[in-house]
Amino acid sequence: MSIRIRAVLKPEYTDVRVLVSHPMETGLRRDDAGKLVPLHFIQTLVLRLNGQVLIQSQLSQAVSRNPVFAFRLRQAKVGDKIELAWTDNQGASGRADALVSAN
Amino acid sequence: MHTNPRHASRRQALAALGAMALGMCAPLRVWAQVTWNRAAFEARSALEVLRALGAQSASESRDILIDAPQIAENGALVPIDITSQLAGTRTITVMAEKNPFPLAARFEFRDGALPYARVNLKLSESTLVRVVVEAGTRVYQHSREIKVTAGGCGN
């Protein structure tokens, strides 16, 4: 369950794209043997800029598998550090960071 | 065990330092923690979600822009792009009214973040997607109907 982050400075804002590898199971899907796959989804996702929290997200199982998010920040500069951290309903968590690039 | 007084005092000093560090870190960690609003996420109807969020009195606003397909061929992956043009936007909440649990996502923005989010959702069937925005002390909403040709809940 990895995170990929791309943060690019645009004229009006910094565009942040986040891809988290996560099954995001609804608890309603059956596996090949016909057994229900347990509910397993990301509940919180926090974005920090240079250590400061800018966006706090609360999510449900309705978010698609391997979720992709886009956010926009103002006044970020090239080289600033963007950090993403998530937790899921089964107690797992992950984090990653990336630097804002010019393109 | 032989105790060297010099080591003992060093242990004490280390313990004191550790306690200080804990004291400094604990409130920081609490501050950074997001609470997942169980009551709202486990609500079974849009009205219940609005109640759990204290947002029943939301007024309609065209300053909430929802960019999403009118017809989604794959309900397992429906991109929803939301921009709030309301001054002082603090939160954006997305609901898919016909999903078993309507509340899909809630984003809270601090200074330095634009009130914008893009997220991919699973839609179980054709549904009204309702976006609720808290701006200043008021609550606003806007909705879009999305037709789903193949539902996404078993995915």
Regarding quaternary structure, how should these chains be classified? heterodimer
Reported CATH architecture of the largest domain in chain B: Sandwich
What fold name goes in the CATH topology slot of chain A? Immunoglobulin-like
Protein chains sharing the most extensive interface: A-B, 34 and 38 residues
Span of the ends, CA to CA of chain A = 26 Å
What low-confidence regions of chain B span 5 or more consecutive residues with pLDDT below 50? 22-31
How many strand segments of chain B? Answer: 9
> CATH superfamily assignment of the largest domain in chain B?
SoxY domain
Gyration radius over CA of chain A: 15 Å
Let me know the average pLDDT of chain B. 86
Name of the CATH class of chain A: Mainly Beta
What is the rounded distance between the termini of chain B? 62 Å
Task: Look up the CATH topology of the largest domain in chain B.
Answer: Immunoglobulin-like
Total of DSSP H or I helical runs spanning 4+ residues of chain A: 0
- Please estimate the helix content of chain B: 25-40%
**CATH homologous superfamily of chain A - what is it?**
Immunoglobulins
Number of domains of chain A: 1
Helix content of chain A: under 10%
